[in-house]
């Protein structure tokens, strides 16, 4: 049973800004997929990293390959996206920016365009079914696929930004950080920015990305994913920190993901503390709630316990995230109103 403290985090209205669709697939949804595709011989241990387990980042990326085998058709994507949206809503997330990499699968007839359309259909259906959450979509560029694919993806994202009634709001740059260099993707990212897509870029997720981060920070991005190795204590530099601070770029921080993926040695050594203590815009996120077996309530609870945050500070953290969304102003105002209404019930 949930304790009083657990209930506080679950009741806390939350904003999720860094959630990869295929990394967010829950145990229950995975069960359905595994049963439908028994011939693949996939077990749960291959799609999730349980409590107490650790993997290298490289092993995490192997997990995504397994999940992609299970999620390979329009029907799968529709089910996965609807389930993920429903689960975030059940966890008290009021606004969600989901991100995913459009994929084509010849065997099932899936195209990148249908991929995006299907995610948007899932968002639409969830809205029709009155799931209590506002969902937007970021089209993801997998750095592994190089500059040409990146440019194609930007064009697709732009098209949907113009035709999706505000559902597609931006572009994510993600994928294995040890593969490729951001300089090759600069042109595509610049184009995305010029056409009005907001940029959420994974930066300095591993120590070797210092030069890349210097370069990509000049765009500048609208939000930073992870930023684990930006600050000098982690092997980054003052110049990187100066840029991030001058631009006041919010950082999406994913504690469990970083600890389980072993880029951070323990919760209380997480760089959340560095940025939070500076008063820098920080937002707690799940990254891949399915793969890392977490949810956003748990991430808030872990941060509060590792860094001694009061319930009032936790409330402040969740509320300030509204400002870092890529949502238009009226949506932000609606969220502010919701937070004000819920405050007396949550902070007793
Ligand atoms: C752990 N830290 C991470 N760092 C970088 N990229 C990550 C990631 N976690 C997930 N992804 C990116 O998201 C894809 C899975 O979701 P989608 O198929 O796009 O929905 C992965 O293949 C990778 O490109």
TrEMBL record:
<dbReference type="GO" id="GO:0046872">
    <property type="term" value="F:metal ion binding"/>
</dbReference>
<keyword id="KW-0378">Hydrolase</keyword>
<dbReference type="GO" id="GO:0046103">
    <property type="term" value="P:inosine biosynthetic process"/>
</dbReference>
<dbReference type="InterPro" id="IPR032466">
    <property type="entry name" value="Metal_Hydrolase"/>
</dbReference>
<keyword id="KW-0862">Zinc</keyword>
<dbReference type="GO" id="GO:0006154">
    <property type="term" value="P:adenosine catabolic process"/>
</dbReference>
<dbReference type="GO" id="GO:0009117">
    <property type="term" value="P:nucleotide metabolic process"/>
</dbReference>
<keyword id="KW-0546">Nucleotide metabolism</keyword>
<protein>
    <submittedName>
        <fullName>Adenosine deaminase-like protein</fullName>
    </submittedName>
</protein>
<comment type="similarity">
    <text>Belongs to the metallo-dependent hydrolases superfamily. Adenosine and AMP deaminases family.</text>
</comment>
<dbReference type="Pfam" id="PF00962">
    <property type="entry name" value="A_deaminase"/>
</dbReference>
<keyword id="KW-0479">Metal-binding</keyword>
<comment type="subunit">
    <text>Monomer.</text>
</comment>
<feature type="domain" description="Adenosine deaminase">
    <location>
        <begin position="13"/>
        <end position="338"/>
    </location>
</feature>
<dbReference type="InterPro" id="IPR001365">
    <property type="entry name" value="A_deaminase_dom"/>
</dbReference>
<dbReference type="GO" id="GO:0004000">
    <property type="term" value="F:adenosine deaminase activity"/>
</dbReference>
<dbReference type="InterPro" id="IPR006330">
    <property type="entry name" value="Ado/ade_deaminase"/>
</dbReference>
């Amino acid at each position: 049973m949930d304790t009083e403290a657990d209930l506080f985090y679950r009741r806390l209205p939350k904003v999720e800004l860094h959630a990869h669709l295929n990394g967010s697939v829950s145990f229950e949804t995975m069960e359905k997929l595994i049963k439908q595709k028994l011939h693949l011989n996939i077990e749960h241990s291959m799609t999730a990293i349980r409590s107490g387990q650790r993997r290298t980042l490289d092993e995490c990326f192997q997990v995504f390959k397994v999940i992609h085998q299970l999620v390979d058709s329009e029907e799968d994507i529709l089910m996965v996206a609807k389930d993920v949206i429903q689960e975030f809503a059940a966890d008290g997330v009021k606004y969600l920016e989901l991100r995913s990499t459009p994929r084509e699968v010849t065997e099932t007839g899936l195209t990148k365009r249908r991929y995006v359309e299907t995610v948007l259909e899932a968002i639409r259906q969830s809205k029709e079914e009155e799931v209590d959450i506002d969902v937007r979509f970021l089209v993801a560029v997998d750095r592994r696929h190089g500059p040409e694919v990146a440019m194609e993806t930007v064009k697709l994202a732009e098209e949907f930004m113009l035709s999706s009634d505000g559902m597609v709001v931006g572009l994510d740059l993600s994928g294995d950080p040890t593969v490729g260099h951001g300089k090759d993707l600069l042109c595509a990212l610049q184009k995305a920015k010029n056409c009005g897509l907001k940029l959420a870029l994974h930066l300095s997720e591993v120590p070797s990305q210092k030069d890349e981060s210097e370069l990509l920070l000049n765009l500048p991005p609208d939000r930073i994913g992870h930023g684990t190795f930006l600050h000098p204590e982690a092997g980054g530099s003052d110049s990187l920190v100066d840029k991030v601070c001058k631009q006041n770029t919010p950082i999406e921080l994913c504690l469990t993901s970083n600890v389980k993926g072993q880029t951070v040695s323990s919760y209380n050594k997480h760089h959340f503390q560095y940025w939070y203590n500076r008063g820098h815009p920080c937002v707690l996120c799940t990254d891949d709630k399915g793969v890392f077996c977490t949810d956003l309530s748990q991430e808030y609870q872990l941060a509060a316990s590792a860094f001694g945050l009061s319930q009032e500070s936790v409330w402040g953290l969740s509320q300030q995230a509204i400002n870092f969304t890529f949502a238009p102003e009226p949506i932000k105002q609606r969220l502010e109103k919701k937070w004000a209404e819920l405050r007396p019930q949550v902070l007793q």
